[in-house]
Design a protein that fits this description.
Blueprint: H1 2-28, E1 38-44, E2 48-50, E3 53-55, E4 59-66, H2 70-101, H3 107-122, H4 128-190, H5 197-213, E5 216-220, E6 226-230, E7 234-238, E8 241-242, E9 246-250, E10 253-262, E11 268-271, H6 279-315, E12 317-318, E13 359-360, E14 362-364, E15 377-378, E16 410-415, E17 421-426, E18 434-439, E19 446-450, E20 458-466, E21 474-479, H7 491-498, H8 519-559, H9 563-598
Antiparallel strand pairs: 1-4, 2-3, 5-6, 6-7, 7-8, 9-10, 10-11, 12-13, 14-21, 15-20, 16-17, 16-21, 17-18, 18-19, 19-20
Helix pairs in contact: 1-9, 2-4, 2-5, 2-6, 2-8, 3-4, 3-7, 4-5, 4-6, 5-6, 6-8
Amino acid sequence: MGSNIFSIGVSGLNAAQTALSVVGQNISNANTPGYNRQVMSQAARMPQQEGFGYLGQGVDITGVSRIYDKYLDSQVLNAQAGSNFYSSQLSQLNQINNLLADPTVGLNNSFQSFYSSLQTLSQDPSSIPSRQTVVNMSQALVSNFTAIGNNLSQMQAGANSQITSTVNSINALAQNIADLNNQIAAAAASNSQQQPNDLMDQRDQAMEQLNKLVSAKSVAQSDGTYSVFIGNGQALVLGNQVNKLGTQTDPANPLNVQVTYPNPNGTATVIPSSALSGGQLAGYMSFRDGTLLSTQQKLGTLAIDFTTAMNYQNQLGRDLSGNQGGQIFADMSSYATHPQDAVANMQLLLADPSKLAASSSLRLGAGGITPAGTGVTLSGVWASMPGTYGWANTSTPPSTTTHPVTGMTGMTINATSATSITATLAGGPDNGQTFNVVPDPTISNGYKLVDSATPANDLGIKFQLSGQMQAGMTINVSPVPTGTAVIGNGNNLAEMMGLQTRKIVDENKDGTNSGLQSFQTYYSTTVSYVGNATNTVKLASTAQTTLLQQATTSRSNVSGVNMDQEAADLIKYQQAYQASGKVLQIAQTLFQQILQMGG
């Protein structure tokens, strides 16, 4: 009997001691990231049959397990991936937003200063100091464009660097998970009934760290290992094997890197950003290929359309020496299909202020009946903008040395009656041909040239006449002779100033007037686009952070260490230990008494 009591007491003592060790482990790891609370399980031993019935034999420790909820853990991982996806973008978007909206760096003030210099020059078109101010403001505008472009390029380089660094971190975590898989599988093989709790905690913690970088799903295998998948089902970890991600230069854009997945034959498959739904890696790629690229393209489109319009208008006029105007800015038309690269190549070509073509290159002919004697005023030829940019017939008068469609260098307007007017073109393939002049209802006092077809085709040449043409009236329109000084004539300068509010920027490049905007309006639209994108990501980031906090709290309530609970268990198992010790003490006393009785 004493022996039986003794063994029962020992089993109780061992159980209480083990339980105290588990409680101590919980208390020690209360602040360990990823640690799940452990509990000891115990069961009564198989009873022994006695004549009077079954007598208990004590207690067995059946195991030490961790309190783990797969569902709650997956909620944390999903929220973690979503939170880091948005937070990695938000800091970058704030930089762009602050850059474009900053009045000291933004383009609106530079545009305003540029057009103010044109306004000042219009008061005295021959003033060299005023012309030099225009040149200076042009350079300031170019410098501001390139400064913003350089900042965006630095953000692009930074995003690519972060992508490369993140891929390396993903591979390191994947290797850590594979190593833990190996240890867990070995431990499970040696004792299939028990789990290596601490190793499993470390692996789950590594999975949580991995989901900060890339959204990853784990599938438990029969041997206790995890198979980890990312993207569209690419296996990152299989047992103790790792399929490491890589990076390579993007052939379509050498400034960018692509994320690759290894193939069995040694090649690599590119993982598009659209295949990655969460984590920092997807966030950096989404920022680079989304808002950042769109902003670069919008800024490039603005630079292309502005420089093209200014160059085109300057070439329609004459400089102080009477020569045809040249390009003010470097031609960037070749970047129309990839405008994100345009700003880096923006350059001011005009260095000599006298070369600014402020004067109109068309004049009324001396022959025939002149407007001064008739009350008829010719405002000028309306020239179409280059069709390759999708611009429609939107330029206002003045004047051109060569019409871009017909190649005309002038025209003679004749009236056989007040309602029968024709125009004969000079120069170009239509040289000498006569076209009908009909009212253009889209222009005040406007007329346009059409052919004799039915229905008539619009040639794209328009002008304004105030007054009534009479039978026999002739107006000749021809270029100012090369080298003829046109001091004081600021007609072309007025057209340059008019470009400030004219709807020219065509982001769609679809050849229609739909969606056209002025330069400053388009820039403001770009600023708003970035601001809206920033606010959207900010709201999403806040929501995901809240979800992460809630999911983490829910998991902690189940799996985390509660110090109050552990303190209560500490007292409980201490008392159990003391009671089992008392059982042993009594068993020892009984055993001694039996020995004495036998003596």
